[in-house]
Structures are given as C-alpha cells and as structure tokens.
Design brief:
The complex is a heterodimer of chains A (132) and B (321). By secondary structure, chain A is of the alpha/beta class. In chain A, 42% of the residues lie in helices and 19% in strands. The chains are: A alpha/beta (132), B alpha/beta (321).
Chain lengths: 132, 321
C-alpha cells in the first residue's frame, strides 16, 4: 500500500532575475515521477530551509546564476544541519566556476551540476543518493 | 520514532513531527493508521476554509492575504495547497508556494503542498487525514486550496465549512461559470483581478444567476459576490468580514452541524472505500479471470458488464440474491 514518492524542493536563493534553468530541472524531475515544490525567485536560505522542513522533502536543489553561491549554498546546508536534518540531500546548479566546486562539496552540497548537464544525470544522482 | 511518540510530538506542536506525519499519511506508509487513530480522540475540529476556482484566478494570492490576517488575529493556520499529479509520470509540480512568500518562516503558519495523486474532484485522498494532523498540531483554521481546474473540483464542498470560489474576468463566456457545479457549492464568490476589463459584467451575471438559484433553493444564506485585487490587498478587509459572517451564520443555524455531519460521512465513506478496494477489488484486478476478461472484451467476445458479473458471481456466490 506504500505510495512513497521522492519529494524535491527546487529553490533559488539570492537575487537572480531569471529561473529558466531551475524550471527545466523542476519539470524533468516531475517527469521522472517526483513531486517537485518550486518556490520562485529570491528566497533567503532561511525561507528555503523552512519550506524544506514543512514540505518534508528528500532533496533540495539550489540554483544560482549570479555568483553568490559560495555564500548562499553553504548557508542552506548549515541551517539544515542546525535543524538536525542531514538526511536531506542537497545539490546545487547554475553558473558555478570549477574552482568553487570542491569547496561547496566540502560544505555539504553533495554534487554540483553546471549548465550543459543532462537532466537524466541529475535524476540518476538523486535516485541513487536520496534517503530510503 | 514510533507512532505514539510521533503523535505526541505533533500534539506538542513540533513542526518537524507534523511534516513527517503528513508524509506518512500521504504515502500510506506503515503505521499511518495507528497515527490517525491515536490523534483522532486527542484533537478537536478546526474551521475549514476551502478555496477553489480556475487556474490563475488568484487562489494562492488570496490564501496568503487571508492567512496573514488570521495569524495577526492570533490564530494558528494550516494551509494545504493541492496541485495536480501528472497522470503520465505520477510526478507533480507544486507551485502554490510561489505566491506565498510572505507567509514563509512566519510563526503559526504551516504550509504543505500536496499532489492530487490521481484523485478526481480536486482533492487528494489523504486530505481528510492531513486536516486531522493539522488539527492535532493545534491549527484552529485550515485553508485548503484545491487543484485549479475549475469544472470538477466540487469535492471541497464535502470537506469545508466555508467554500470560497475565486473567479476572474476574461476566461471565456459566462456560461463557463455556470456549467460546472461551482455555483452550487460556493458560500462566497470573489471576482479577483477586478481591475481588468469585464469584471463588472461577470459580477452582474453571477449575481443574477445566484439570485435565481436562491429562489429555487430557498437557502438562508445569500452568497455574496465581491470584487478584489489580491496583489494590492484591495478590498481584502471586506472579504475577511464576509468570511467571519459566514462563520457566525454556521454557528447560529443548524448549517454548521449539517456540514460537520457531511464531513464525518465523507470520512467514513473514504475509509470504507479504501478497505473495500484493498480487500475485494485489488485481488480481483490481480486475478487471471480479469486478464482473460480484458482479452474477451478487446475481441468483442463479451460485453464488459457481462465479464464483470461473471467474475463477481464466481468469487462471491449468490451475490445477486
């Protein structure tokens, strides 16, 4: 009788003005059978974490195009840890220079997907790494 | 965490516990029935406001404004925002929160997006259970925002104390509004985006139709028609006033009790259906006779009704007597 579905939050922290990429990812995850919560532009890390907890998501996908990822992504991971919810998988995407990648991964962002990534790779990564 | 612990935490107002409980009942995961049975006698009914109407009319924006005001007045508000599940992938894009930014992170507001998961009529099968969890958590008002299809989501009438229908000008001819059954279930009507052309005409038409319906039914509540512009909060005060009026009306007449009875009946029916499906329907649909039946119908050897009758007779002898 169990009807478990993966719940994902796609969120855009910071001041980016457009979200085409985030919407494409959201749609791809939906088409892969996930329930995707999309919150729109200009969310603070606090808002993102509050949403993630209320919605009890399995994965948070953060997107940033404006260069503020090094501050905003780890802040989300930090807040999630404060709430004791390290079981939630955090991934990131957008315009992220290669040199920032390892630092973000050290700070709790499990994987970075930059532009040009196939949505199939993202889906595969989520399915393999999400909590049971 | 065992079910009772989870239940206690929900009653204690633990947000995380409520979130996990909601996932449990939505997924029909092990222990969900125990959780519901634990919470039921330990919680009391809330005021349930249903919001429905076509996509883009402003359901989420109005929900946000209403919830903000209710919280300011000291209430604890739970919001269930329902969006459609894709019948093709089983996935869903839940986007009601885009308009609810002002509510995020506020105290005494809990928002949960739910996918309809195949339910027709605009509500998810787990909605009644989700309401119970929110009540146990201490919400005194639960707002349910239905799937925005506009022509069939009349299920909300069986669940809500007050049904708010939100329409907007410019979405087709006026007959679209009276086709559906929306007119019959509404306690309050809102024409949102009233600064757009055609709002006056739509309002006049609606009032005319409601007036006529009133005479037919002789109800004692006259559903008002309000014009709002949710993004500028224009006339939201008036809407809130009307909602309070309807709440009073329910308390002062027997209508409130009638609605409560209807909701109890719906809850009972939902559980009966789920058990019957599990006990009787599922084994039949998994059986060999069913597979054979499909082939017979496809080859026009037997009419569907005939196949069904023979399967039932075989499994439940004397069922027709």
């Amino acid at each position: 009788m169990d009807e478990k579905r993966i719940r994902a939050l796609i969120a855009k922290p910071g001041l980016d003005g457009h979200d085409r990429g985030a919407k494409i990812v959201a749609q791809a995850l939906r088409d892969a059978g996930m329930e995707v919560i999309y919150t729109g532009l200009r969310q603070t890390p606090e808002q993102i974490v509050s949403t993630a907890l209320q919605e009890d998501v399995d994965v948070i996908g953060l997107s940033s195009l404006s260069g503020a990822h090094s501050h905003l992504f780890p802040r989300v991971a930090e807040l999630i840890e404060e709430k004791g919810r390290q079981d939630i998988l955090i991934i990131g995407g957008g315009v992220i220079p290669e040199k920032d990648r390892s630092d973000l991964e050290k700070k709790g962002i499990k994987q970075i997907f930059t532009s040009g990534t196939s949505t199939q790779d993202i889906i595969k990564f989520i399915k393999e790494n999400v909590r049971d | 965490m065992d079910t009772q612990e989870l239940g206690e935490s929900i009653i204690g107002g633990d947000e995380n516990a409520l979130a996990r409980g909601l996932t449990l009942v939505e997924n029909r995961s092990e222990g969900y029935k125990d959780l519901l049975e634990y919470l039921f006698p330990r919680s009391s009914s809330s005021y349930i406001l249903g919001i429905t109407g076509p996509p883009g009319a402003g359901k989420s924006s109005i929900t946000t404004k209403l919830a903000l005001d209710m919280v300011d007045k000291g209430q604890k508000v739970g919001i269930l925002a329902i969006d459609p599940t894709s019948p093709f992938s089983g996935g869903a894009l839940l986007g009601d929160r885009i308009r609810m930014g002002e509510l995020v992170g506020r105290e005494n507001v809990f928002i949960r997006s739910m996918a309809s998961r195949g339910a027709l009529g605009g509500l998810s099968p787990a909605v009644l259970d989700a309401i119970l969890l929110m009540e146990a958590y201490g919400s005194n008002t639960v707002i349910i925002e239905t799937v925005g299809v506009g022509q069939s989501e009349t299920d909300i009438a069986g669940v809500a104390d007050t049904v708010l229908i939100i329409l907007m000008p410019g979405i087709g001819d006026d007959v679209q509004t009276i086709k559906a059954g929306l007119l019959e279930i509404g306690d309050l009507f809102v024409i949102n985006k009233a600064d757009h052309e055609g709002a006056g005409e739509l309002s006049a038409f609606l009032e005319g139709m409601l007036n006529w319906q009133e005479k037919e039914k002789e109800k004692d509540w006259n559903p008002p028609v309000l014009k709002t512009v949710a993004i500028s909060s224009d006339r939201m005060e008036e809407l809130l006033g009307k909602i309070e009026e309807h709440k009073d009306f329910l308390q002062k007449t027997d209508q409130g009790e009638k609605k409560g009875l209807r909701r109890a009946g719906l809850a009972l029916k939902t559980h009966m259906k789920a058990e019957l499906e599990q006990l009787f329907l599922k084994p039949l649909l998994d059986g060999e006779d069913w597979r054979q039946g499909i082939i017979k119908v496809q080859e026009r050897e037997a009419f569907p009704g005939e196949v069904v009758r023979s399967i039932l007779e075989k499994n439940f002898p004397n069922i027709w007597r």
